[in-house]
Amino acid sequence: MTQSASVPLRVVAPKGMGGWALVQLRSTILTVMDGLLIVVVTAILAGVAALVVRPGQTLEIDTLLYGGGVESKLLWSAILLACFLVYRLSHEYVHNPLWPPKSGTIPLTTMCHANALTLFSRIKSPITPLMLLKELCTVPAVVLVLVRSELPLKLFAGLLAERIQVSPTTSDTAQSWATGLVEEIILRAATHASQSHGDKITVLDILSGALQDPEVIPLFQSFPGRLESLSQSIDRVDRIEELRRRMRHFGGSAHASPKGPMNVTMTAVATPMLDAVSIDCTDRVKHSPYIPYVGREEEFAQLFERLEGHQRRVVVVGFQGVGKSSLIQELAQRMVEGRVPAIINDHRLLSIDPSRLIAGANQPGEVEYRVQRLLAEISCSRNIVLVFEQVEQFIGLSSTGHTLDVLDELTRILEQSSLVVIATTTEDQFRANLETKTNFTSVFHRFDLNEMSEEGALRVLEAHAAVSEGRDQVLITTPALRESIRGSLKAIHDQFLPEKAVRVLDQAVSLVGSTRICTSTVVDEALSGMTHVPFGSVGGPERELLLHLETVLAKTVVGQGYAITSIANALRRARSELANRQRPIANFLFVGPTGVGKTHLAETVAAAVLGSSMRLVRLDMSEYQEASSVDRFLGVPGSGHGGVVTEALRANPYALVLLDELEKAHPKVLTLLLQLMDEGRLTDVTGRTIDATNMLVTATSNAATPFITSAFQEGKTADEVHRQLLDTELAAIFPPELINRFDDIIVFEPLTADQIRQIAQLELSKLTSSLKLKGIILEFPSETIEWIGTLGFDPKYGARPLRRAISDHIENVLSAAMLEGKVNPGDHMRFLPNGQLTTVT
Amino acid sequence: MGILSLVFIPFEEVWNAFRWWYGAGARWIGLLFLHEVRMIEERDHLLTWARNLFTPMYGDSSIQGRLISIGMRVVVLGYKLLWAIVWLGLHGVLLVSFLLLPFIAVLMLVTRFSLV
Known about the structure:
The structure holds 2 protein chains of 2 kinds. By secondary structure, chain A is an alpha/beta fold. Chain A has 38 helices and 22 strands. In chain B, helix 1 runs antiparallel to helix 3 (63-112). Chain B has one domain (3-112). Chain B is mainly alpha-helical. The interface between A and B is large, with 46 and 38 residues.
């Protein structure tokens, strides 16, 4: 510990095996002594009482105190012993301001809690940090922390036992070395204790000190990330304890505060209309379970600063899920506790409910009347803080066909009053509806509530988990909390922290099985279910598939090795989370003549990875040739619905997006694709953002086919063709910024006669398989494959003529034979090159 | 640390008890007293009531309302004040007892009853 080195404090640990036995003995003696003390003090006091109330004899108080008789002696002895007992029973739990001492030699026995000391006394000397850790792992509080950090306990215990066996512990030098190390751990534990809870050293403080030991740290090399999780879990215990303290304090305050609409000083005025149309937030929090709100201390300080200044009307602007409602709830809780500025102390926090405001108003002008009365009541009362949650709802309230802008009416009155009003709204609503209202913006001062930081969100999740653990009887690990934040940041882009992480955690808790432990794996499962994007570590069949993806693809795609390798690498990068997360997994452009397998490769990739939930979203760009196609893409403005494409992408966030025949799309549509391919997102007309960071974008194009065909015929290499294609041919068809967005432009070479024969073999084997299901065995000798390959070969059209040749020369013959009854289930046939079927005997 | 050291445990503990009693223990009981002072304001709002002595109750600003309000507030404030004095007095006794009782007990046992 760096800090301990600079502090001239020395812990004296007992030396040798006998020393630790003495610690144990000492601990036992003290426990027995405490018990005896209780008995003795009780006995003496009982004796004194018996003497005082002896029948027929009255004893004056002066005589009892100063008389000098046996009862006086017993009484004063009992008082002294009782004082000693008070010390014995409370000294460990009373914080000493001079602790830990800055310097001096302190016996270990005076630094630790009794339970921590018992831990030491159980260990056979000499103690090494590893032995200490092993013994720590038997303490229930430590086991709970280990489980919370997802450390595999059995594996860890085994490894620890192995290491202890090989560490030197027998010689005198080893003993002195070991004792020194343990002293270092105790000093670290003391520092941790003083920084976190400022009390005597607990078992968890010792664990924290042990985890920084150079001998212990290498143990965790086999368990990556678990050392940090352990430290975080230890600190989490302290934070949960702090929350419990806050909860107790709130309970006391809620009990002591006045109930109903009356305030402490009884200055409140009856507000029947206001009570009818509002929700009393302060009253509600008094009767609801305490919900801790953490991570926004700075924002609260700023808000109070404004309220104390001249900005008494504040509109809190923030995206959905950043915690606006929680801010109001916490404000109500603080008002109950009195932890607010004087200007709003002893006030009620009332949230106006727009539906109550118009409910049952069936007479013309009734809403106006209610609003006027409401405002009159507010003006008379002096103990009200008004809240307008989602303030935009008050803009066009209507009843019986009469529309009234309540907000305008309110702002008009508020201009002349000193009432404290807090409104909330989202960023979008503020921009769309409120920013342009000059009277609103002149009365209300904008207060931005930004998305919470990851650390802040972690504190929120810890508090949420503390409530959830008690309510749902589950144990939520610290890596699960971190994974909820990491995963929600990665996969959920239209919501904000901390709410999106809380939703993920809640979903994970609902998936917890019989173990009742919510781990990061369960969170990954929840995330996969919520977003349809695979999460968590790659394992089992998925790992095999990704490692051998080229082989799997090559089974159905002939040639095009470069394209296959590029796609396989991109998918591996994405799944191992090495890819840039602000863009799609990869953007590819496949160019080449027709029939060479561009679309087929994309379909094959989607089919191969389909097992791990990848979907194929195919967009035929020839359908987007007009400028109006943009509406089909993003949705018609004013319709309130997203476009065909954006909705398809929203439904399939983990997909291979196949943009077929890209060159046919309208330039406006191509511009939309720029955003999709560059930023990994697309916003539809309703303002919702589609996350494309888990999509593999593959565009195909037949553009520059004559050039590619002739270039390969001239014997140019693929590299030369690629370079020339980029420099001249594609630049004439696609805008340069679009070409730049592609990670790779893959040129598909025209298929050779040999490759056509391989494709023929693949296609015929598919036919054989389908016939096998009908009980017919059909053989295609190599001569037949050669024959059909020759018939289906056309360098201009790739594999398409082959499809026709198989259809015309094989499938037609087979279907006719089956209908004529020449081929029946159970038959074994051979297809000869002349198109004839023979029976194999 | 030998086996003989166990004999000294009671003496060590007496010395530790003395240090704790007039160190951390005294601070603890002092803080408890201060906490009670704060709790009295939090629970009974004495200062808030004193500040609002002339503020009419229930928003009734008429002369009669004001007079009734002042009278009522004086009575309630008096009751609250009395209760606070009793409560704090009890805690004051506890504080003083904590600080003096061991000292007096030793003094009585040593001087008046010639235990030593």
